[in-house]
Design a protein that fits this description.
alpha/beta; Rossmann fold; eight-stranded mixed beta sheet
């Protein structure tokens, strides 16, 4: 399949301290929060980017739409390089990308009605003469009545606010939706409705979806492929079914082991990892997961693992794969 989105060796660096503070504390002036991430996404495909809090997955998503600067590496959309492009060039690409933010209510302006919120993309980017008809279409697409357009964000339930976020992301008929924790804060029943809505909209409009989440239950439900991040790097990627059936990286196995099972009476072998996530200011030598890995070898402490390619199409970085 032709890649709609292609990310290669992406590095994102945040300032950490002034030169004076760094000299006094011994800390570096900057820290790499994303370090060499590569992945691709095909048209109409869903890719889940998963990992613990602080793994860098949301930072990657924000870089794709130009909300954080890229230190090095490349981001290409439909073959066009967008990392480092001008604001005018990025605006043209942004028409093809919609983003669903993690905080459904906080991402909506409290001063604007739902109708005004959904009209805003057309006022900024143009593309239609009948904004009212487009707003009505969007509300219908996400299963909300037209009367919701007169309400303000504080008058919406969590599920309604999330649907408005989806509608806003769909406004300009994008080719890619970036969904950052699309079910965060929702009841389990509402989570299912939201996932079914995203699946339905994806099939109807042939949209590619990049899901950013730590909820592995929704990954199993919605994603074609999964990429697992740890300390700003992807440690395993491949078809979702294969990763859930037989993870190759110990970190992936630990995440799956900690995931609540649908059947509470089911007996499972649990893989537990010890210790806290290391500081980005002091990345471990060798494999960065080795201080927490129960299968670490001596080589894991000395040398970074190479990228391995499995026959089933998976890729992982581990000296001692499962």
């Amino acid at each position: 399949m032709t890649a709609l989105l292609d990310v290669r060796d992406l590095h994102i660096r945040f300032p950490a301290a002034s030169r004076l503070s760094a000299a006094l504390s011994g800390l570096p002036t900057s820290v790499d929060v994303v370090a060499g991430v590569s992945f691709s996404l095909a048209e109409s495909e869903t890719l889940a980017l998963v990992g613990e809090s602080g793994s860098g997955k949301t930072t990657v998503a924000r870089a794709l739409v130009g909300l954080v600067p890229v230190h090095s590496g490349s981001i290409a959309f439909e073959g066009r390089r967008i990392a480092g492009c001008t604001a005018r060039e990025l605006a043209a690409v942004r028409r093809q990308m919609g983003m669903i933010f993690q905080d459904p209510v906080g991402s909506l302006s409290p001063r604007l009605s739902v109708r005004s919120i959904l009209s805003e993309p057309f006022r900024v980017h143009g593309g239609t003469e009948d904004v009212g008809a487009e707003v009505a279409r969007l509300l219908a697409d996400v299963g909300l009545p037209a009367m919701i357009g007169e309400r303000y964000p504080h008058q919406l339930s969590g599920g309604q606010a999330r649907r408005i976020g989806v509608a806003r992301a769909l406004a300009l008929r994008p080719k890619l939706i970036i969904a950052d924790e699309p079910t965060a804060g929702l009841d389990v029943s509402v989570q299912g409705e939201m996932l079914n809505l995203l699946n339905d909209l994806q099939r109807r409009y042939r949209i590619a979806v990049l899901v950013i989440t730590h909820n592995l239950n929704i990954v199993r439900h919605i994603a074609d492929r999964t990429a697992v991040m740890y300390l700003g790097r992807i440690v395993e990627t491949g078809p979702t079914g294969d990763i859930f059936a037989r993870p190759r990286h110990p970190y992936t196995a630990a995440l799956l082991s900690a995931n609540p099972a649908p059947d509470p009476d089911a007996v499972r072998d649990r893989l537990e990892i010890s210790g806290d996530v290391p500081s980005l200011f002091a990345r471990p030598n060798g494999c960065e997961f080795h201080p927490r890995c129960p299968f670490a070898l001596e080589i894991c402490r000395a040398a970074p693992p190479p990228l391995a390619h499995a026959p089933d199409g998976r890729r992982f970085t581990c000296h001692n794969p499962l």
